[in-house]
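For the sake of transparency, this paper describes our internal protein records without simplification. The tokens are whole numbers drawn from a learned vocabulary of local backbone shapes. One such record is reproduced below, unchanged from the form in which we store it.

. . .
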Amino acid sequence: MAKKYSLMRCRECGFPRMVSFFVRWNDNGTLTQHMRKDFRVAILHFGFLDNLFSNIEAKLGISIEHIAFEAQRNASKATFAAVFDRIPGAGSLTMPGFAKRLGVEQFNKVGVITGQCHSTTLEYKPGEYGVARIRNPFNFSLMAANVVGAFETMERVPFRHTWEEEGPDTYIIRVEPTGERTEMAERMKLEFAPMLPGNLVHDRCPRCKVPRALSSHLKWMENDGIILDTRTGSRVVMLDGYMVASVFREMVNELGEEVNELLVDAQREWTVDHVGQLGLNETNGVATPEELEKAYREYLQNMALYGIGNPVAFKLDGDNVTVKVENPYEVHIIAGTLQGLREALEKSKSSVEWKELGPATVEFSIGPA
């Protein structure tokens, strides 16, 4: 039987307290771990993640699953290193069995609070193997990478995994030590870019300090391992802020700069659809400049709430849009987002260019194609 979870909610706004203990919404367009203030977190839409890699694989004609797996494994290890710091005995080279069992239960809780999956430990023998049931993974391959990375952090040796499908969206995964570490995994180290301070003012809950704009539309379904955006009925997931950048950095090394163009285009296509789901492009006839600006600003505000970056300047000049973003999550994703946003709102094809203005600062220019 699947383990039942009941997340404690804030009495003021209803937001899960465990999430607000784990993640901090900063005033600079970023989300970071409370336990590790230099480690970024982002809220990403399941539709984007689910389609991104399959879309690019189809266009390239090759699989990139192994690259994504290694990037997510490294990100998972960095995430759980911070979690283990809070577990008694976890810092020693010979972690006692009780601390490892506590660690495994923390894996399961992290999956629920981040909306990545619902997981239940079926068997665990410290130092030898672990078996779990995973339901509703946001992406099974990336979820498996998270599990492998977490065990490698705890056991301090490389791990491998095997799996079988038990039923619809339900998998049994087994992990066990292996003496090998892939060359690619060694190359794909996380890069922690410096973050600029900001002066965003969020309307926050006075009790848990989470922005009210999030608590009003995100719903945690903890016994399904899902976070739902109630505005569109679509799933979102909280992930590290580094996996996508690591994947595409490695792909550029292997395949060339064309990969980045595919990333921009994939995000553009997804954003056009997302803007429609939100109803921001529903106008009677041609939108007025005032209506357009309001829609642009509403969508840009979500970027900061989701940890994608801080849009510190916005200008709408006829057919052209300029946006300056500090602390961008991933430049090509933001470029595709802004290009798709313009196409959805102005109902015409567009082009996008960008330039770095300084550390962690990028200016995007979007105009007619």
